Amino acid sequence: MEKIGITMGDPAGVGPEISVKALASNVDYLNNAIIFGSTSIINFYVNLLNLDYKVNSITKPSEFKSGYINVLNVMDLSFDDIKIGEVSPTAGAAAYKYVESAIQFSLNREIGPVVTAPLNKEALHLGGYNFDGHTEIFATLTNTKKYTMMLWSERLSVVHVSTHVALREACNRVKKDRVMECIELAHDALIKLGVTNPKIAVAGLNPHSGEAGLFGNEDMDEIVPAVNKKKAQGYNVEGPVPPDTVFLKASQGKYDIVVAMYHDQGHIPMKLLAFDSGVNVTLGLPIIRTSVDHGTAFDIAGKGIAKEESMLWAIKLGIQFSRNS
């Protein structure tokens, strides 16, 4: 198995804790994963959680040791430098550096999939890195032009035409070519996950998918032509399906994945159905990137109560993508 890179996210959040908990709960992951982060902070959580494992601080993947929690010490910090649960430019810059390092090692094929713990966007910006989030960092650092965010769970999976933009701008981004691109990315991702002939639903943008132009023209002018063209090319796709019913139908098994038109359209049903078990995947990259589908949870950071379930699913999905890529 390729080594898995886990970026520990914002060191003031729950990322270091869930990274350690995930490895401590699964010996196969422990013996095949490297945390990119801070040795001192990982040691803090090993002690806080009374774990029996020792930390092996390394500078390159070849120094890996089985039976240890291996930490590639990218930017060492301690809680003398930052405060648990607080936004800081130091923590934001560190979170970026952890991701940057893991991406480079993955591009160089020294590790396989990269699994990310959450970072804080405000801290990231204060630290001097003006990205909207992980997805944009990965796309930029891998020079990827065609990509999208997929949220995956056992009950529902979603890809997005747009994500971190204002709602007014999101409506402007519903274009035929982009919708077709997302259909292709969704199809290819599910094939890699072992789904034969994936059933894809494309959500409408407007109420009732525009009601033949009564409630907006985007569905009729942009989404319908995109769906029809992909159908003609052999894709198993339907749409635009009214957005108030499409996610229910998908969760009941009618569709394998939904192409959502904007961030909240896709995120709200996912958070409702799979808050602790959802996985965020960036599709279209030359490397594999999966992530927990939750934030830094500053309110519970450092208390030893953060749940590692989403991290375990993210690792599992990263391995599955890696085996089929």
Written overview of the protein:
The chain has 325 residues and is an alpha/beta fold. It has twelve helices and twelve strands. It has helices at 15-24, 27-30, 39-48, 89-107, 121-126, 134-141, 167-172, 176-192, 218-232, 246-251, 263-274, 309-323, and strands at 4-7, 33-37, 55-58, 69-73, 114-116, 148-152, 157-160, 200-203, 237-241, 257-260, 279-283, 289-292. It is elongated. It starts with a strand and ends with a helix.
Features:
325 residues; twelve-stranded mixed beta sheet; 12 helices; 12 strands; 16% strand
Short description:
With 325 residues, the protein is α/β, with parallel strands linked by helices. The chain contains 12 helices and 12 strands.
Element string (H = helix, E = strand): EHHEHEEHEHHEEHHEHEHEHEEH
Q: Low-confidence parts, pLDDT < 50 over ≥5 residues?
A: none
Distance between the termini: 13 Å
Please estimate the helix content: 25-40%
Gross morphology: elongated
SS summary, helix count: 12
The amount of beta strand, in percent, is 15-25%
Instruction: Work out the number of β strands.
Output: 12
Task: Report the major sheet.
Answer: 12 strands, mixed
| Gyration radius over CA | 20 Å
Quaternary state reads single chain
Classify the secondary structure makeup into a structural class. alpha/beta
**Adjacency order of strands in the biggest sheet:** 3-4-2-1-5-12-11-6-7-10-8-9
Q: What is the arithmetic mean of pLDDT?
A: 95
